[in-house]
């Protein structure tokens, strides 16, 4: 399984941008990069995904390195509600929708 | 998108007993999965629930311990059999749509405590 490496935790101030890094040096050419987050006492929720190009949606932006060995999830203005564990996941294309969760990054947002 | 409900939301069970967890989706879905999340840990995939056939289990999980049913495209059950305190976890159901962007939708989870 292709693996990802994320910092265990990060802190941010409210209303400031947050950059959550993820290393995935063994990524294969057909692996999609997915980000999910898990708010306290809830199931994970989808945030964003990409293959090669940078992606934007209403929740966040995903910046993917040119060699695809790393990516960064960007929250443009962190709110207290963004405090969660953020998981960077490589979706193995041959495995259908299977997701393999790593340790994730616990984001703490300070008011 | 999909809305997923799980029953029960939580339970406290005695060792040696079994508990069946239900997962109901508000639309027909291609893929259904069961995950376990042990206290303070990340999610671990238990199995893929296949409609009309036996579930596909991940390494370390066996059908005798975690039998799974999926009678149709909107419903699945996971049974935790002959429970021990080590089975105390949150069990989550998730669903996905074949051919889509691998986005999965997760249920709220079932918090199980085994005493």
Structure description:
The complex is a heterodimer of chains A (about 110) and B (about 120). With about 110 residues, chain A is mainly β. Helices cover about 0% and strands about 45% of the residues of chain A. Chain A contains no helices and nine strands. Chain A has a five-stranded mixed sheet with strand order 1-9-8-3-4, with no helix packed on it. A four-stranded antiparallel sheet of chain A has the order 2-7-6-5, with no helix packed on it. In chain A, about 35% of the residues are buried. The mean pLDDT of chain A is about 90. Chain B has about 120 residues and is an all-beta fold. Chain B contains no helices and eleven strands. In chain B, the strands form two sheets. In chain B, strands 2, 4, 5, 6, 9, 10 and 11 form a seven-stranded mixed sheet that branches. A four-stranded antiparallel sheet of chain B has the order 1-3-8-7, with no helix packed on it. Chain B is globular and about 40 Å long. The termini of chain B are far apart. The mean pLDDT of chain B is about 95. The interface between A and B is medium-sized, with 20 and 25 residues.
Give me the secondary-structure topology:
The complex is a heterodimer of chains A (111) and B (115).
Chain A (H helix, E strand, L loop, with lengths): L8 E5 L4 E6 L8 E7 L6 E6 L4 E2 L4 E4 L5 E6 L8 E8 L13 E6 L1
Parallel strand pairs in A: 1-9
Antiparallel strand pairs in A: 2-7, 3-4, 3-8, 5-6, 6-7, 8-9
Chain B lengths: L3 E4 L2 E4 L5 E7 L5 E7 L5 E7 L6 E2 L10 E5 L2 E6 L8 E8 L7 E3 L3 E5 L1
Parallel strand pairs in B: 2-11
Antiparallel strand pairs in B: 1-3, 3-8, 4-5, 4-9, 5-6, 7-8, 9-10, 9-11
């Amino acid at each position: 399984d292709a693996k990802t490496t994320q910092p265990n935790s990060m802190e941010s101030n409210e209303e400031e941008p947050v950059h959550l890094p993820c290393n995935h040096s063994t990524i294969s050419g057909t692996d999609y990069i997915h980000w999910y987050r898990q708010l306290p006492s809830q199931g994970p929720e989808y945030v964003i995904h990409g293959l090669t190009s940078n992606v934007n949606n209403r929740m966040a932006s995903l910046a993917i390195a040119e060699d695809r060995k790393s990516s960064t999830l960007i929250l443009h203005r962190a709110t207290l509600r963004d405090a969660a564990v953020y998981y960077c996941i490589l979706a193995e294309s041959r495995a259908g929708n299977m997701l393999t969760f790593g340790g994730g990054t616990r984001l703490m947002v300070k008011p | 998108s999909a809305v997923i409900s799980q029953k029960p939301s939580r339970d406290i069970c005695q060792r040696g007993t079994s508990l069946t967890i239900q997962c109901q989706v508000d639309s027909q879905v291609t893929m259904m999965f069961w995950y376990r999340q042990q206290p303070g840990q990340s999610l671990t995939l238990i199995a893929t629930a296949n409609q009309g056939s036996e579930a596909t289990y991940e390494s370390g999980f066996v059908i005798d311990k975690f039998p799974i049913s999926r009678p149709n495209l909107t419903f699945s059950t996971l049974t935790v059999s002959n429970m021990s305190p080590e089975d105390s976890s949150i069990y989550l159901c998730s669903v996905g749509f074949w051919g889509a962007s691998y986005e999965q939708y997760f249920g709220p989870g079932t918090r199980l405590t085994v005493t």
